[in-house]
RNA sequence: GCGAUCGUAGCUCAGUUGGUUAGAGCGCCGGUUUGUGGUACCGGAGGUCGGGGGUUCGAGACCCCUCGAUCGCCCCA
């Protein structure tokens, strides 16, 4: 199968074609339609950035930065990194282009991301996300708007069944710091009972112990102090506005006080849309508020919220799509009619009708090949008993005046 | 990074306890038949059995290594 001398695809990359591409394209098109309804502007951003853009903002100790980035030196010796996520690059673009003048700015984008991970169902080294961000909006209404948009997107894709919105707050930075300290204290006390993984997490990312799947970790994680004990009044009020906004918009949600986000920059609202239909890769859309990120990057204090969703994961949930049918298959059943067939095809295409020509290979089999593409109409050009014959036949029971009149206009017929 | 399963024509797969020139269906190309029709029949092209090494008189089948896919762990979207 894999022949010698034929290059193979890089591990974890995909060549998306056929039905998979139909689903993929459907997700992107639906996103683009929905983001217009919410008046988000499209942005196209570079696929690589200076390494520091990601390393500093995501957190040096996160797995994404410490072992998953595709980083390399370019010819001038600068360290560059293929984007492992969108948010940091968008924040950078916001600052370098002076987009403060447009604040609050609602941005949407999509494209490839790169992470050096072990490939698995719904997990690739080059994967694709759709992404929505609101930058320069401190109000909880921004969080609500983003969540309502996500909810509508999933509904329009027809995949809201079995997908639940899990919501949490991480509080402001003082809250998060106090909670984190209390968690570390709690876990230190039970360190000996924790799994090996979780003992490591205690050093690197203690919040992650909360959603550990190890049975031996569960009692300790479940008895850990809750964020609610540490929430400042402002942070609690903020979260209350988000939840009441969701209720007002009729978006179903579940509080998950153990929900934690992997990247360091999140504050306040954190959320994931989760399904049980994708095995281990259950998170289909995730995000939250990252008020401190832009300031950390050297810009002015700028509140922001956003989310991203994996296009491949969404596409896997989408039901089989009916692909749009070809309008007309033009068949030259005789070699002497081939150039006229080409003329007819051009006339139809210029008239806005999707058309394919069948004028190669065995004349006897051209018609059969045309039938197999399941077109709406078949136009047949033949020579019978020395006479030219031509006909247009509908394959279903539908009529189409536009196609009929383009065919009946015999400009393509010579002599 | 760790564990498990898998890898035979373009595609989906058979290949019996290791035994002569590796098979089918679909697809592709050609022919005959039919003659306004996705017909039937005949023929053809296309495989270093993922790659490398080993065991054996003999390996697609067994062993080791390697690459890739899949499913978990981890991480995350």
Distance between the termini: 51 Å
Task: Provide the helix percentage.
Answer: 25-40%
* CATH class category of the largest domain: Alpha Beta
Low-confidence stretches: none
Individual helix count? 14
CATH architecture of the largest domain, by name, is 2-Layer Sandwich
CATH topology description of the largest domain: BirA Bifunctional Protein, domain 2
Q: What is the percentage of strand-forming residues? A: 15-25%
CATH superfamily of the largest domain: Bira Bifunctional Protein, Domain 2
Task: Explain what the structure shows.
This protein has 415 residues and is an alpha/beta fold. It folds into three domains: 224 residues, BirA Bifunctional Protein, domain 2; 57 residues, no CATH class; 85 residues, 3-Layer(aba) Sandwich (Rossmann fold), CATH 3.40.50. Helix content is 36%, strand content 22%. It contains 14 helices and 15 strands. The longest helix has 20 residues. It is elongated, with a radius of gyration of 28 Å. The structure holds one RNA strand of 77 nucleotides.
Q: How are the secondary structure elements laid out?
A:
Blueprint: H1 18-37, E1 41-42, E2 48-50, H2 51-58, H3 63-67, E3 70-73, E4 79-82, H4 87-96, E5 105-114, E6 126-135, H5 140-156, E7 163-169, H6 173-189, H7 196-204, H8 218-222, H9 233-248, E8 254-255, E9 267-275, E10 283-289, H10 293-296, E11 304-310, H11 311-317, E12 328-332, H12 338-350, E13 355-358, H13 363-372, E14 377-384, E15 387-394, H14 401-408
Parallel strand pairs: 1-5, 7-8, 12-13, 12-14
Antiparallel strand pairs: 2-4, 3-4, 5-6, 6-11, 7-9, 9-10, 10-11, 14-15
This protein binds one RNA strand of 77 nucleotides through residues 1-4, 8-9, 11, 62-64, 67-68, 85, 113, 115, 117-123, 127-130, 197, 208, 213-214, 261-263, 272, 279-281, 283-287, 307-314, 333, 361-362, 364-365, 367-372, 374, 380, 382, 389, 391, 393.
């Amino acid at each position: 199968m894999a022949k010698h001398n034929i290059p193979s695809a890089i591990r974890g990359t995909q060549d998306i074609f056929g039905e998979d591409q139909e689903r993929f394209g459907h997700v992107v098109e639906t996103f683009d339609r929905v983001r217009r309804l919410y008046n988000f502007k499209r942005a196209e951003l570079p696929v690589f950035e200076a390494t520091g853009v990601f390393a500093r903002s995501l957190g040096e100790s996160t797995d994404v930065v410490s072992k998953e980035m595709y980083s390399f030196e370019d010819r001038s010796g600068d360290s560059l990194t293929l984007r492992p996520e969108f948010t940091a690059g968008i924040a950078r673009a916001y600052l370098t282009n002076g987009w403060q003048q447009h604040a609050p700015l609602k941005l949407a984008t999509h494209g490839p991301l790169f992470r050096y991970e072990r490939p698995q169902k719904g997990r690739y080294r080059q994967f694709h996300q759709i992404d929505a961000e609101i930058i320069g909006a401190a109000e909880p209404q921004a969080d609500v708007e983003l969540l309502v948009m996500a909810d509508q997107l999933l509904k329009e894709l027809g995949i809201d069944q079995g997908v639940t919105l899990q919501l949490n707050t991480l509080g402001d930075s003082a809250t998060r710091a106090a909670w984190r300290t209390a968690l570390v204290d709690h876990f230190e006390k039970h360190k000996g009972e924790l799994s090996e993984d979780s003992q490591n997490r205690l050093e690197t990312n203690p919040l992650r112990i909360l959603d550990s799947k190890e049975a031996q970790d569960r009692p300790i994680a479940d008895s850990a102090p809750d964020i609610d004990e540490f929430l400042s009044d402002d942070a609690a009020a903020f979260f209350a506005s988000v939840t009441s906004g969701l209720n007002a918009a009729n978006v179903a949600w579940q509080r998950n006080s153990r929900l934690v986000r992997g990247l360091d920059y999140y504050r306040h609202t954190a959320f994931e849309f989760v399904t049980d239909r994708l095995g281990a890769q259950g998170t289909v859309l995730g995000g939250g508020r990252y008020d401190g990120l832009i300031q950390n990057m050297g810009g002015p204090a700028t509140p922001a919220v956003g989310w991203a969703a994996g296009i491949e994961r969404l596409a896997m949930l989408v039901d089989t799509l009916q692909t749009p049918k070809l309008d007309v298959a033009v068949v030259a059943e005789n070699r002497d009619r081939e150039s006229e067939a080409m003329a007819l095809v051009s006339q139809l295409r210029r008239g806005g009708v999707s058309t394919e020509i069948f004028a190669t290979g065995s004349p006897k089999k051209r018609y059969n090949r045309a039938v197999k593409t399941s077109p709406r109409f078949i136009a047949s050009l033949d020579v019978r008993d020395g006479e030219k014959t031509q006909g247009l036949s509908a394959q279903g029971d539908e009529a189409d005046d536009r196609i009929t009149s383009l065919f009946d206009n015999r400009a393509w017929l010579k002599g």
